[in-house]
Design a protein that fits this description.
The complex is a heterodimer of chains A (167) and B (564). With 167 residues, chain A is an alpha/beta fold. Chain A contains five helices and five strands, in the order E-H-E-E-E-H-E-H-H-H. With 564 residues, chain B is α/β, with parallel strands linked by helices. Classes of the chains: A alpha/beta (167), B alpha/beta (564).
Amino acid sequence: MTSTVTNIVVAGLGGQGVLKASDVLSDALLRAGHDVKKSEVHGMAQRGGSVRSDVRYGPEVFSPMVSPGEADYLVAVDSSQVDVCRHLLRPGGVVIAPDAIEAAALPNRRSLNVALTGALSAHLDLPAELWTAALHANFRQDLWAANEQAFQLGRLSQSGSAKRPST
Amino acid sequence: MSATERILLNGDEAIALGCLHAGVALGAGYPGTPSTEILESFSKMGGRAQWSPNEKVAFEVAIGVAYAGARALVTMKHVGLNVAADPLFTVAYTGVSGALLIVSADDPGMASSQNEQDNRHYAEAAGVPMLEPSNSQEAYDFVFAAIEISERWHTPVLLRVTTRVCHSKTVVRPRAVQAQPLAPHFVRDIPGRVMIPAYARPAHRRLRQKLAEIQAWNETSDLNRALPGDPALGIITSGVSYAHVREAAPAASVLKLGLTYPLPLRRVAEFARGVSRCVVIEEGDPWLVDAFRAAGIRVEGKPDMYRFGELSVPRVRRILEGDVSPESKPPPGKPPQLCDACQYRVVFDTLRRHDCIVAGDIGCYTLGVLPPFEAMDSCVCMGASIGVGLGLRHALPPDEARRVVSVIGDSTFVHSGISGLVEMVYNPPPGGHVLIILDNSTTAMTGHQEHPGTGRTLDHEPTNKLVIEDLARALGVRRVHVVEPRVGSEDFGRMLLECLASGELCVLITRRPCILIAKRLKELEQRHTAPESPLPSTGIAAEAACCPNGVPAGAGADRPKSGI
């Protein structure tokens, strides 16, 4: 099962755009023809608490939740959530944290979630145009340019990384 | 929309789309996590949806729609069905002319709830057929199935979902052919609809007869599916647990139940006979396993420790292995808190400084219980602050009683606080009482829904407005004050001390719009007061435009904007 399904956890605090990032991610994966499941618990999390969104994809996905020790990637929009979610990573799983992004280069401080999604995209085997389409589907048109810029910034930050995490 | 189109929807959105395609005439409800997005999505997709003051009223509106021969939807979280339980039990007797779809969104694990009650008990207790989808495709499909059952047997149907179904996005392939709405018209049926004892006695017998027919039908219904597998291990399951089961035990034989009340017991017995070990995997109470055992079917249940919280793939593995060793606890995340600029900070800071005994209620302001405030002493259910506060006032010695206040939000006050206020006026404690209504002009906790006190409907259009201070005065409260709590201002503190010292009945309304909607509120108010267009039809056009094909672009569209 775990060999054919890829598990991604996006984590952060309420208001940081965790759910938006996982929406863009799952949208791109759906466009690529994968079976996709995305699960999160919101509600009280909107008030600044921890928010976590699980995205799983592959030929067929059953449970919508990522099990501890099985995440291939952890995308942390807030560095405080790396330790909170580390137990979810499998051995050799990849952490993508805010320090991967040059904050000063962001078009907007609040686009860190999209920049980190861009960083994640460098590890996933998806055509670039699907990411653009997913960004366009999830943001108003006047925000496209800034988000594409943030996404590219993140994508280029991973140059030199392997396409897939080592095992 | 083509039949092969794949869209990613959460369970709530899938229910909404199902209702749109199945010709539901009206959806009513009260916001409550994880059910809230159903009506919001239904409205954005073009369906007719409304928030009611509470679940009981919403339920009754839906009954009326279904009596009129149309298809009705009513949505609520699990505890909302407690509020609506009165009509539930009797509409099961009367039945309906059109269709009545009741959505109960349960919250095992209590992501955002005060209890983890298992509402499958309601289906059995009230005698209402129940469907349990395991993902968004089934949430969509089961809406059609529920409406078919409702119309065929003239019965309300319960669609029971859980947080993981509501808030997980999975792939949905919508149907190419959509249902035509029914044409409503009134058919008089006094013995069928008026539940005086003489008419209710035969109605109860009719209900049991209907349930027996549905049970017989369910024995061969394709709403339940058997997946052949290893005969050494058979698993009976329903809802999202099915997804965990397929992953935890890919080789097992599985009987997945979709229509879980009335249960297809012959089919279950046959499945159990065909495997050497038969385990029931269900979240929450041992409801299926008890029903099977009562029918004489030999099945294994789960150890009691798995009754608490959600199930998951690792927990299902543990159940199958009979592992009852303590589970490892994940590191704690950051708890939610009141926003930095929230008016409630001033209120709870003041209540703490004056050592008030606070009967609290349900909403954002329940966070006043956490540090640094710790200024809430009870929270039971929607509206309970007033009754509980009055009871404390009646029973405590005077030096303690005079420190008791009830604290309730604006939406919660309208939901079920009004009758508490009537009680306060009718049976006043000797030392009076102080009711603080925290009015932030929205239902904030569930994501900023309108309510009767905002003067706007679900889709943010102007409507008649309930004015809380006018209502309080009309009920006979003489001391009614409205104050804006501000950091650095002692207005609220002064007013509170004055009320506490008065020994009278006081209603103290703290009014300031929620900081998260202040900007949007201004835009709405400007639009609605523009002289050229006193009643604009645009609503919030920017959001409506996100789903030109009747399919939402993303559930995040209505949340406070983040990630620019």
